[in-house]
């Protein structure tokens, strides 16, 4: 397995957590987004979208973090990242997609860069944009997580799932942009439970081989 990612990419962060939970250690290749390495011809041949992450395995180039993680879960079924019950499985996917499809795209690096140039917004305005959409997304997730009658240490019961794999990177990025996470105590408790696990702790951006200050 060859894994292409960037230390600050939350989508790459999700995959690193999943690799850790599955006990996998693919060869890592850094793709520096701020140096536009994702736009180079060689990388575009591998991933035409020019995004990270990409997982190259057995002649296939898998893209999009949720697709990669579901492939991992189907190929390496233990420990399972999705519950067996079809209703709960749908709820876990919905929670994960609320982050990966609703919050993350609005706060992606390329969107933030476009707001600054060519649209001409100041850094303060860009940061306010980030925090607004983060709060819009996290507030309902806090209510969902807090309302679960069967709640365990994690988003769904006593084992980490795809929901937690998406939540932890999102909270880490939100904290970096100055979001007030004290408004989400249940999500904070889940994050703490996750980060106590080796797979989550080892996946932290600052511990990656391509990490920068």
Features of this protein?
213 residues, alpha+beta, 53% helix, single chain, 4-stranded mixed β-sheet
Structural write-up:
By secondary structure, the protein is of the alpha+beta class. It is 53% helix and 8% strand. It is built from nine helices and four strands, in the order E-H-E-H-E-E-H-H-H-H-H-H-H. The chain has helices at residues 10-22, 41-46, 65-75, 86-103, 109-116, 123-147, 162-176, 185-195, 198-202, and strands spanning 2-5, 27-30, 54-57, 60-63. It has a four-stranded mixed β-sheet, with helices on one face. Strand 3 and strand 4 (60-63) form a beta hairpin. Helix 1 (10-22) packs parallel to helix 3, helix 4 packs antiparallel against helix 6 (123-147) and helix 4 (86-103) packs parallel to helix 7 (162-176). The longest helix has 25 residues, at 123-147. The radius of gyration is 17 Å and the shape is globular. The chain starts with a strand and ends in an 11-residue tail after the last helix.
Q: Give the SSE order as H and E letters.
A: EHEHEEHHHHHHH
Largest sheet report:
4 strands, mixed
What's the β-strand tally? 4
Mean pLDDT: 96
Fraction of residues in H or I helices: 40-55%
The strand order across the widest sheet is 2-1-3-4
How many H/I helices?
A: 9
Helices and strands: which structural class? alpha+beta
Uncertain runs are none
Q: Looking at the structure, what is the overall shape?
A: globular
Strand content: 5-15%
Q: What gyration radius follows from the Cα positions, in whole Å? A: 17 Å
Could you give the distance between the termini? 28 Å
């Amino acid at each position: 397995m060859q894994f292409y990612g960037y230390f600050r990419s939350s989508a790459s962060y999700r995959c690193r957590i999943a690799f850790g939970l599955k006990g996998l250690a693919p060869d890592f290749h850094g793709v520096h987004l701020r140096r536009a390495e994702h736009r180079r011809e060689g990388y575009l041949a591998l991933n035409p979208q020019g995004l990270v992450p990409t997982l190259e395995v057995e002649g296939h180039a898998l893209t999009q973090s949720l697709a990669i993680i579901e492939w991992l879960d189907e190929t390496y079924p233990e420990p399972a990242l999705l519950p067996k019950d079809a209703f709960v499985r749908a709820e876990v996917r919905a929670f994960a997609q609320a982050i990966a499809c609703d919050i993350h795209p609005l706060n992606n690096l390329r969107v933030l860069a476009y707001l600054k140039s060519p649209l001409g917004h100041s850094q303060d305005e860009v940061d306010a944009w980030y925090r607004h959409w983060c709060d819009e997304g996290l507030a309902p997730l806090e209510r969902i997580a807090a309302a679960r009658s069967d709640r365990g240490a994690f988003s769904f019961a006593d084992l980490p799932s795809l929901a937690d794999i998406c939540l932890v990177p999102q909270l880490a990025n939100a904290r970096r942009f100055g979001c007030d996470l004290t408004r989400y105590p249940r999500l904070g408790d889940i994050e703490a439970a996750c980060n106590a696990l080796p797979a989550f702790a080892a996946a932290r951006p600052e511990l990656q081989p391509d990490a920068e200050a």
